[in-house]
Amino acid sequence: MPDRRPHRAAFLGLVALLAVVFGGPAAAAAGGDTLIGIVRSRIRTPVDFAGAPEVVWLLETPQGKFTLDFTEPPTEDLTGREVTAHGLVQDQRIAVTDYAVKPRKQLPLEGGPEPASHQTGTQNTIAILNKFADIAAEPQPSSFFSSLLFGAFPSLKTFWEENSYNAMTLGGSINGWWSLPQPQATYNAIPNFDARLNQLVADALTTAAANGMTDIPNGTRLLLFFNERFGCSCAVGTLGFENWNTPWGVRTFSVAWFPGGNLATWAWAVDVVGHEMGHNLGWWHSGNVYFTYDSNFDVVSRGCKAEGSHTIVFNKVEAGWLSGPSAFALPFGTTSTYTVFPTTRTSGLRGLTLDMGDGLRAYSIEVRLHEGHDACIPEEGVLIHCWHKDLEDWAKKPVDATPGDGTLTNALWLPGMTFSEPAYGLTVQVWRQNPNGSFDIVVFWPLPAGVGCFGVPSSVAIQVPLGTPVSMVARQFTALLPPTPTAALMPAPLPCN
After folding, report:
1. Nearest to residue 218, comparing CAs of 117, 142, 80?
2. Confidence of residue 354 (pLDDT cuts 50, 70, 90)
């Protein structure tokens, strides 16, 4: 997305360049400070997924980590980007008056959305159980956390193995309970919440070293559990990796923080730990059709309490867990029937994706049944997502089969139902469910006429008016598809220029 402040961005880019050339901090405008570093993101999840999450950006610099307080939210995802920020620094935060973004290559173990190599294989998962110095309670034994993370179904280990088709698993250790050096009130008195989180990491690792821990290797998934709250009714996860000063030197790993006390029942569960680990793997939320965290069909939205629910096909394709014959990327001109198996299965076609080619929208199609870690989802059927690429968080939204009812619990598409997006000439018909649990799905996406905003020459001119049954449009499928009302759900995309 273009920078809305090109002249300021160019100026600050020059300032950053001068800083490098002359080997010192760039000269700041009068009354302010200039920091140069890499942006990291953290996401705070409210208790019971009630309310809006808070996305926090931090600037990782040689001088430490500084919370970025923007007067206006950024218009693009800054995670993993090099930024020169100008503003007033106080309490490990900078009130940003202006900033410039430098494109940078995403390198392994340098933050940002995870490269596929860090979403496969055995994830070194280290859990540390922490007691505040003034609170002696140990609410659960270490065996509880061993079962939660590494045990038999339903654990986090079986959750990620099932989601990734055994491309990713968890291995590691449970450590503690160990006492932190400060009482709860001392941590809660740190005014900058993210500086408080940083201090909790530093003290937890110092305590761990004193108790015999020998290292936190690069690429670790660090999970910190506390025996009480740490100043908010929330759990928190880093979006990907951050660099940390540890007793063993600088290390790069992701972190998730989980509160205890009366929040333990909520936070110490497959759905919440899986949610924060989803952020650790580099994924933003999905959903927010009617309200935040409104989708039970993605662990990185609300998920479901008992087994957690799978993540969505878009994420699985990005991670490399589905590819080739297991997930088809359909091209323009597709007019065909596909047999799609549930995403809980380990073989067969399990996802369809369709990129509209304009940089604004893409769609995915998948099947969800009450199986494995999807046993707790509210219904069975075909799940369609629209990826709003002009959004950052909440960009991947379920397409509700029953629009306007205020809930996604009945959002899945059933046999005889048809989704149509007239703006793109896309129609999807759910034909039937087979005895083996798969669904036969008809996709009708003809090439547009002429050379228009799609940029594809074609002599075919087919319009799909709102409310037209698929059987009236695709005559070759008349014998197969019952004429049913069409639900055109997605808002019209931005016009082509």
Report:
1. 117
2. very high
Distance CA 231, CA 190 (A): 10
d(C-alpha 427, C-alpha 172), whole Å: 46
What are the φ and ψ backbone dihedral angles of 439, each rounded to 5 degrees? -120, 140
As a whole number of angstroms, the distance between CA 234 and CA 199 comes to 17
Closest CA to 201 of 271, 253, 133: 253
Sheet arrangement for strand 396-398: 328-329, 352-355, 361-368, 381-388, 396-398
Integer Cα distance of 11 and 346 in angstroms: 53
Q: Could you tell me the residue ranges of all domains in the chain?
A: 6-102, 116-280, 313-487
Domain 6-102 -> CATH class: mainly beta
- 245 touches 65 (CB < 8 A): no
Are 449 and 417 within 8 A, CB to CB? no
- 371, amino acid identity: E
Residues near 277 by beta carbon (within 8 Å), at least 6 away in sequence = 156, 160, 221, 223, 237, 256
Q: From 304, 300, 302, 323, select the one nearest 312 (Cα to Cα).
A: 300
Identify whether the C-beta of residue 160 lies closer than 8 Å to the C-beta of residue 113: no
Spatial CA neighbour of 364 closest among 294, 413, 309, 433: 413
pLDDT single digits (tens) 75-127: 788 888 899 999 999 999 999 999 999 865 443 334 444 445 589 999 999 99
Distance between CA 301 and CA 286 in Å, rounded? 5
Confidence at residue 118, expressed as pLDDT on a 0 to 100 scale: 86
> Token pair for residue 362?
């893409």
Using DSSP, state whether 185 is helix, strand or coil. Answer: helix
Contact 396, 387 (CB under 8 A): yes
Q: Kindly report the number of other CB atoms within 10 A of residue 475's CB atom.
A: 8
Q: Name the token pair of 275.
A: 């949610």
CB atoms within 10 A of CB 371: 17
Q: What is the DSSP letter of 128?
A: E
> Hunting for tokens 């290390």 — which residue is that?
251
Q: Which of 164, 172, 121 is nearest to 146 (CA)?
A: 172
Kindly state the helix (H) or strand (E) to which residue 270 belongs, with its residue range: helix 270-280
Is there a contact between 277 and 270 (Cβ–Cβ < 8 Å)? no
Over residues 185-207, the pLDDT tens digits come to 999 999 999 999 999 999 999 99
Continuous H helices in 346-390: none
What distance in Å separates the CA atoms of residue 441 and residue 124, rounded to the nearest whole number? 39
- Torsional class of 319: left (φ above 0), alpha (ψ -120 to 50), beta (otherwise): alpha
